[in-house]
Amino acid sequence: MKCDKKNRLNLKDHVPLKPNPIRRGMTVDEVIESSMFSFNAGTFRKACELFSKHMAKKDVRIGVSLAGALVPAGIGRSCLIPLIKAGFVDWIVSTGANLYHDLHHVLGYKFREGQAAVDDGQLRENGIIRIYDIFLDYEALLDTDSFVRKTLLRERANFPDPCSSADIHALLGKEIIRINPKLKDESLLAVAYEAGVPIHTSSPADSSIGMNVAALMLEDAPIPMDTHKDINEVTSYVYDIKKKGGKSAVLLLGGGSPKNFVLQTEPHIQEILGLPEAGHDFFIQFTDARPDTGGLSGATPSEAVSWGKIDPTALSKTIVSYGDCSFMLPFFVSYVMNKSKPRLCSRLFEKRNKLIQQLQQDYKEIGSYKKQADQGYKSGRGSR
Q: Is the pLDDT of residue 377 over 70?
């Protein structure tokens, strides 16, 4: 069989694999660089290098999605807080459950090592909550519910109308600092608040925080929250940095709704608002889901290109590393902290109004809003 010389692959152009023996006293980054070359180990090393060499630069804005029970597993305190303090997280989209569980520790409750093979009926009788192999006192839920409701009720009149979920989470972080300043550095909500990192949730009603907001409605004290404001806020973070000539990066921890909420910022810019953009520039996902079963639908880098979520020219800077986030993140963060210089926090929480105003102005001047108005949609023509 003849091979086209123009497209012929040259084996010498590919880096040879040179694994080195593990030795006593090696750091995590040394182990990763000297022994992790192929299969999932290889993609994990490439993810570590992609973040430290490219995403950690000062002109890159990093959005993080957080799904699964990672905060109860300790990932919030061990991994996410150090990344925030080093300036490597600009904005977060999390499940509400992770943020709710973040509150237990500062209220005096501890997650305890348990076991998965246990009589859950007996746990229920003894007031113990189980998260796989993690145990928690049921009283922690009741006290946390009370804390959330009292805090929101007291500050209800001070919320913007409408507010986004980021406003609620910032208030909870601020309250943690007020009531227990000694533990503020152990709370994801409190550390993010101090760093000006906005934390959003894509499904605010799908958590105990959301259920407590629902309870306030029954008390005739509704919180004026509109998650559609969250859509525009997170989109403005991406649009702003790209308009300035910088780059947008996503670090996806698990999948679910938070993953899509982070990625849909680009389709919102391009498809809905009609503003010129090409997609996120860097993409790392740690997941145990599979694309062939639909678990990664719309989120593998190449598939995301078809949606406009990822810049097609940036596919070489996208990594999906398959595995358990609770296992992979500590090694990933250790590598990043050893290899990357800290950055200044972008403090997007305080800049949200200005960034949305910029997004709205461009939408009206050059986006689909102007095109629809020119075609008569604004006056009702062409609609039913």
A: no
> Is 341 within a domain?
yes
Q: Is 339 a catalytic residue?
A: no
Considering only the C-alpha atoms of the chain, give the largest distance between any 2 of them, rounded to a whole number of Å. Answer: 78
Please pick, among 184, 259, 309, 317, the residue that the annotation labels catalytic: 309
> How much is the pLDDT for 297?
58
Digit-coded pLDDT (tens) for 213-264: 999 999 999 999 999 999 999 999 999 999 999 999 999 998 889 999 999 9
| Domain assignment of residue 82, given as a range | 18-369
Task: Tell whether 240 is covered by a domain.
Answer: yes
Contact 95, 207 (CB under 8 A): yes
Task: Count the Cβ atoms, other than its own, within 10 Å of residue 383.
Answer: 9
pLDDT digit string (tens) for 70-104?
A: 999 999 999 999 999 999 999 999 999 999 999 99
Question: Does residue 231 lie in a domain region?
Answer: yes
Under the banding of pLDDT at 50, 70 and 90, the label for residue 384 is: very low
List the CATH number of the domain containing 166.
Answer: 3.40.910.10
Number of domains in the chain: 1
Residue 62, domain member (yes or no): yes
- Which whole-number Å values give the CA distances from 60 to 15, 90, 157, 195, 200, in the listed order? 28, 9, 36, 17, 20
CA distance 111 to 372: 54
Q: Taking the alpha carbons of 34, 38, 41, 47 in that order, is the dihedral positive or negative? A: positive
